[in-house]
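Hey, weird one. I pasted the Peptidase sequence into the form twice and got a warning about non-standard characters only the second time. First submission, copied straight from the form history:
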Amino acid sequence: MLQQIKRKLDDMRTIKTLAEAAERHANAAGEREPGPEHFLLAAFDLPDGLARRAFARLGVDPAGIQQAIAAQHGAALASTGADPALLADAAPLPPAKGPYRAKGSMQGVMQQLAAWPRATPTEPLTGAHVLAVIACSAQGTAARTLRALGLDGERVGAAARAEIAGYRAV
């Protein structure tokens, strides 16, 4: 029981780290609220390295994700008739004050992370869990970004689950 409490506290710290990193990524892109694409970037920042290893397993360098996200945002603007060059002028925003806010699409991501079936009561939340949850979405900027990188959600999810399984075995 004590181990389960410790794991939940560790998970809360991981979520805090993810949320803060996602907000930094969103603010750097001139966005006030982070969405799944920013949590995707934040998963690669986690010290466990499992999201990076999942991408390596797929032969993809995660360094291209930020540019792919920007391209998806530009394409979304262009589809409405707006000039994608408007994004080039987006100045980084300072961190928000007050309670944490994220895009509405993050609610589903957080619920899926909370409901993730853990193999053991002590299995920690990792970047691979975040990657697997975000990869299962067929819509949104994160899903379009993965497709732009030549990845489908099923393959990304499988690579993430393989990293989680390997992490458990250690």
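That's the output from the first submission. The warning seems to come from a hidden character in my clipboard, not from the data itself. The mean pLDDT is 86.
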